[in-house]
Amino acid sequence: MRIVTASEMYEVDRFTMEEVGLEGKMLMENAGRAIAEGIMKEISKQDEILVLTGPGNNGGDGFVIARTLYLKGYRVRVYSLVPEEKIKGDALYHLNILQNVGVPFHRLQNGELAVRLEGMDVIIDAMLGIGTKGALRSPYAEIVDKANKCEQAMRFAVDIPTGLSSDEGVETEVAFKAHKTFTVQCPKESAFIEANAQYYGELEVVDIGLFTESLVNRPGKKVWLKEDVVRTFPVRERFSHKGSHGRGLIIGGAPNMPGAVMMAARAALRAGAGLVSIAASHHLISTIAPYVPEATYTDLNLKTLDIDSFHAAAVGMGLGRSEQSASLFEDILRLANIPIIIDADGLYHLKKMKNMLKEHTAPVVLTPHFKEAADLLDTTVSALKQNPFSLTRAFSTEYGVYFLLKGPYTIITTTDGDQYVVTTGNESLAKGGSGDVLSGILLGLLLQSHHITEALCNGRFIHGKTAEILTRHTHSRYDLLASDVIEGLPMTLRTICK
Ligand SMILES: NC(=O)C1=CN([C@@H]2O[C@H](COP(=O)(O)OP(=O)(O)OC[C@H]3O[C@@H](n4cnc5c(N)ncnc54)[C@H](OP(=O)(O)O)[C@@H]3O)[C@@H](O)[C@H]2O)[C@@H](O)CC1
Ligand SMILES: Nc1ncnc2c1ncn2[C@@H]1O[C@H](COP(=O)(O)OP(=O)(O)O)[C@@H](O)[C@H]1O
Ligand SMILES: [K+]
Asked: Is ATP-binding found in the keyword set (predicted)?
């Protein structure tokens, strides 16, 4: 499912209207009806419903929603924040129909509504959409603030909550706090910015018949969905052997962090890897081996370890930050000609030698969380949180790496700048070890997949999905351990990726 900026959405609108020939009025009718259908599932006919409308097409969607609800017998009225003379085009067309049908219609007088927002059971925000520029002006800011204070009301936003930008990089002062946002055709970039989650609430995408084909040739952003996992998950052939599913190498294991490589190895095997080897300090091997008997072990000595005899490697989990491990990491990066995942302490060392990435020809996957990523990109966590798409895309294309920016909304960027968002998972994963398990799953899938992007998206999807399934059935969001996620993978794989 494509994620768009405002300008991309306008291009989709233009293409659909001018080149395909679907009229704007009809698109507005489709949008309003689809959103009204969604809202009707959440409200009752006893509810007092107020639709707040603005000057543009977002307001036009609001007129269609109000008419649809009214004709179905709901108690709805419309409040326009602008005089009728300001309403033009398709929105005016639908305002006329609204008035012909007899839906109660009022407009704001001297900045005040003639009804108390506090008395409303349902407030629908069709004030501003993707045409929003800058901070809210009066009277929008005041009305939005009042609406947000109506604690008893269910609040729905049309397309985007009024006050938010569609694009990343814009700080929000005041915005409508929706319980649920019905977004038109494609989620907008800003829906995946952490600070905006409190305004969007739950997000539902409504299909109104727009054609997104006009965007096909641009580097794109997409949400990776279950149907994408089902379509691309590696198939296990009946006559395959262990070598068919890849030989993976995990390099790490500082004496005080034996768990990281252990969990990564076990997760890689559970995700389907054919063979997994752990290269760790020989003191550690006897400690780890009983916990992952299916793996093989080798001393972490680059004179004897032939990295390229493996199909892919993961390095950095529990590697340590000593000078010695820094030079070990540098040697690995210089020697490896296989796809390599770099996580945790590997990312720490990489910061000082990131120019090596430009010379490196084999695929490199970086899996930082926000703090690690901000360090690597020489920026702050808050700047990265506000501009995660553009900053990671710039880094990926400059350094030629795959970048998996870990978080509740994980953004995966390819070397070409295409981006995928994976939103599975919940706060049960906010616990030490989750990242090690993810690295293991990613390695397991990298070994079995023809496409690196699919391996990364699928790996991150099943990691989060497993946490969702476990916290729904057998665990709480408090107790879940990273190793529980490994043991929960069978449930996810059996249901999604048979
Ligand atoms: N085919 C279609 O057309 C379809 C359209 N669709 C729907 O249309 C929506 C986009 O409609 P749109 O382009 O009319 O923009 P929209 O956001 O409603 O209003 C812009 C107005 O806001 C005003 N304004 C801006 N910033 C402001 C601020 N900070 N504070 C205060 N005011 C501010 C600005 O005023 P101005 O600055 O020009 O005076 C301008 O007049 C889209 O989100 C979707 O819901 C869908 O139904 C699909 C089919
Ligand atoms: N609140 C959350 N919601 C969903 N996923 C989360 C949340 N917090 C963490 N995660 C996931 O857990 C993992 C944490 O990785 P990381 O911070 O590297 O953990 P560690 O280094 O402790 O192993 C990431 O995959 C991230 O997407
Ligand atoms: K809106």
From this structure: yes
Pocket of ligand 1 (CB under 6 A): 13, 24, 27-28, 31, 54-59, 61, 90, 128-137, 140, 158-159, 184, 208
The binding site consists of 57-61, 125, 129-135, 140, 159, 162, 260, 318, 369, 406-410, 435-436
Show the tokens assigned to 379: 């920026």
Q: Which two tokens stand for residue 68?
A: 């649809």
The ipTM of this complex is 0.92
How wide is the angle at C-alpha 35 spanned by C-alphas 60 and 109, nearest 5°?
40
> How far is Cα of residue 90 from the mean position of the Cα atoms in its chain?
33
CA distance 368 to 378: 13
| Structure tokens that stand for 265 in this block | 């190895």
Helical residues (DSSP H) of 367-433, grouped into ranges: 370-376, 381-386, 388-399
Q: Do 121 and 159 lie in a common domain?
A: yes
Q: What is the mean pLDDT of the chain?
A: 95
Burial string for 76-115 (b: 16+ CB within 10 Å, else e) reads: bbbbbbbeeeebeebbbbbbeebeeeebebebbeeeebee
Alpha-carbon distance of 105 to 99, in angstroms, equals 7
Which of 429, 431, 466, 470 has the most ligand 2 atoms within 8 A of CB, as the residue to mutate? 429
375 has a pLDDT exceeding 80? yes
Query: Which of 171, 192, 218 is at the close of a domain?
Result: 218
In this structure, what DSSP letter does residue 190 have? G
Residues 434, 473 within the same domain: yes
What whole-number distance in Å separates Cα of residue 388 and Cα of residue 23?
A: 35
Q: How many structural domains does the chain have?
A: 2
Read off the amino acid at residue 35.
Answer: I
Same domain, 175 and 257: no
Distance between Cα 426 and ligand 3 center (Å): 27
431 and 341 assigned to the same domain: yes
Q: What is the pLDDT of residues 427-436, one digit of tens each?
A: 999 999 999 9
Considering the domain architecture, whether residues 131 and 259 belong to the same structural domain is answered as: no
User: Which amino acid is residue 493, in one-letter code?
Assistant: L
Distance (Å, rounded) from C-alpha 108 to C-alpha 223? 39
Q: How much is the average pLDDT of 208-216?
A: 85
Contact 132, 199 (CB under 8 A): no
Q: How far is the CA of 78 from the centre of ligand 1 (A)?
A: 17
Task: Judge if 190 and 255 occupy the same domain.
Answer: no
**Shortest-distance atom of ligand 2 to CA 431:** 22
